[in-house]
Amino acid sequence: MFKPIIEFCLSNLSSGSQAAKEILESDENLDVLDYGCLGLCGQCGESLFALVNGEVVTGETTEELVKNVYTFIEEDPFF
Questions:
Q1: CA 38 to CA 44: how far, in whole Å?
Q2: pLDDT digits (tens, 9 = 90+) for 20-45
């Protein structure tokens, strides 16, 4: 079984998505990674975000980002 891949940009982590990453890392059904840069600088400057299976998922707050990640995974027919 494939696990959803959640990717974070280090710059966005320092802007506030670190708490969301820590919450998602506690879920053993997810693969959570971070990179120096994901090449989405415009998105990175606008809001908290993560790539979920290669798609941008955003949130205004940590809680909203985590909720939106799980919603995206639930709606993805691959998982």
A1: 9
A2: 999 999 999 999 999 887 777 777 67
* Distance of alpha carbon 67 from alpha carbon 53, whole angstroms: 16
Rounded to whole angstroms, how far apart are CA atoms 21 and 18? 5
State both tokens at 44.
Answer: 């990175």
Give residues with Cβ within 8 angstroms of 77, minimum separation 6: none
Q: Is 40 helix (H, G, I), strand (E, B) or coil?
A: coil
Select from 72, 77, 78, 61 the least CA-distant residue to 23: 61
Query: CA 79 from chain center: how many Å?
Result: 16
pTM of the full structure: 0.89
Exposure of 9 by Cβ count < 10 A (0-12 exposed, 13-18 middle, 19+ buried)? buried
Q: For the sheet with 31-35, list strands across it.
A: 31-35, 5-9, 48-52, 55-59
Two structure tokens written together for 32:
């959570």
